[in-house]
Amino acid sequence: MTTLDFLLHGLSIAMDPMILMYALIGVTLGTAVGVLPGIGPALTVALLLPVTYGLDPAGSLIMFAGIYYGGMYGGSTTSILLNTPGESASIVTALEGNKMARAGRGGPALATAAIGSFVAGLLATLALAFLAPHIVKLALIFGPREYFALMMLAFVTVSAAFGDSALKGLTSLFVGLALALVGIDGLTGQARLSFNVPQLLDGIEVTTLAVAMFAVGEALFVAAQIGGADDKVHAIKGAVAMTREDWRRSWKPWLRGTAIGFPIGAMPAGGADIASFLSYGAEKRFSGHAEEFGNGAIEGVAGPEAANNAAAAGTLVPLLTLGLPTTATAAIMLAGFQQFGLQPGPLLFATSPDLVWGLIASLLIANVMLLVLNLPLIRLWVKLLTIPRHWLYAGILLFATLGTIGMNPSPVELGMLLIFGIMGYLMRLHGYPIAPVVVGLILGPMAEQQLRRALAISQGDWTTLVSTPVSAGILLVTFLALVVPLIMRLRGKGEVLSQIAGAED
């Protein structure tokens, strides 16, 4: 069967009424959490992990993907009307979008963001469908050495991509790797770090850790903020529809943003925030209205919004084909796959083709749903911004606790939820990223297993890790991904210090 045949088969699966209902729930929840400041797709998917434990795997994963796409859509509303990006990928949208809202053009800004997201999501999902099978063919030749090198690349890039400091990212990663050691050793059968607690013999539940770090930790962090400034919502004045001039100035940025966002999202060191910044720079360079940038240029909204939605589809490429998460939401989605006994990677396309292609096809349908939900109901989504923060986060704490108890009614599990929640709050307070902890817990056992297999095959010879061109090349890229940002950061600090010294002279 060709890729087109697989995609058409996936569409027939995705048109099932129950699957459509899951997709609709996902995109609606995603849009809502995208609109609400401070609540992102990662937090929402983490909250829903325990709730979906006994549900249909395909429907649940489609709902998670819908939340991811919807969160990217909804994030533009907060950025444009409140100048408060819900996620880092929406920072660039706020630069021009909020200026347009202040000038009474909030409607066209939201419209170009929604349509650009639709165009980018549609094209990027088609690119995902046609690119993924080729990556799977390449990944099928990987052995233990190559997989271990790939895991190392994932560890380094995730640690460097999140947070302000690579050192803090690596510290968070090692916390996750330490937690991954808890339980029974898969090769020797010996208990490790279980402290004679029977519930720890199976290891730490990824779901419990994700809910605690993302939901409980975030809620505690917001509750600890005292005397926050009141955010003012800029009302949408006039029609939401775009003028002919707006369309003329938007369609090229939509296409450019898609072309920039998808490959960057698919790279291990990529991400929607990088894609949106690059798209903004490209639009500023190519636009015929460069003087409007900084004062409300519609290209500065259209391009970055298309880029971050294309990047969202791009992140599913390494997740589905190699099992590597490149964003916090992708890491939680990986936990969702494992919750149902599924391991994303090349074998998933062979063992569960209906699930994979149904998921990819449902993303096409979800994009249409999102366009229908966003454009006519923009004024309704804006009303969500009036929900008091203390009600919102109190509900999150309650929902997180009940979900964890429902999935695993154990005092030990509840205690871990509280401990990891406090740990998440402290990490958030001191600027340590949370996503590497979850990635370390998920990928740590897999990396250990592949390393021990490689060493067993070579009878303990460590040089086997670089004995093939593929594994050596991946490890070299890993080293460069760790060292190059550090050199650039030190060079930037040196330039700043020299400028300060010159100013003092």
Short description:
The protein has 505 residues and is mostly helical. 73% of the residues lie in helices and 1% in strands.
Which terms summarize this structure?
20 helices; 73% helix; two-stranded antiparallel ribbon; mainly alpha; 505 residues; single chain
**How far apart are the first and last residues' alpha carbons, in Å?**
71 Å
The largest β sheet comes out as: 2 strands, antiparallel
SS field, number of helical segments: 20
| Helix-strand sequence | HHHHHHHHEEHHHHHHHHHHHH
Portion of residues in beta strands equals under 5%
Beta-strand segment tally: 2
Query: What structural class results from the helix and strand content?
Result: mainly alpha
DSSP helix fraction: over 70%
Average predicted confidence as pLDDT: 78
Q: Oligomer, anyone?
A: single chain
Major sheet: arrangement of strands: 1-2
Describe the global form. globular
Radius of gyration: 23 Å
Return residue spans where pLDDT drops below 50 for at least 5 consecutive residues.
none
Description:
It is a single chain. This protein has 505 residues and is mainly alpha-helical. The chain is built from 20 helices and 2 strands. The protein has a two-stranded antiparallel sheet. β1 (183-184) and β2 (191-192) form a beta hairpin. α9 runs antiparallel to α17 (389-407).
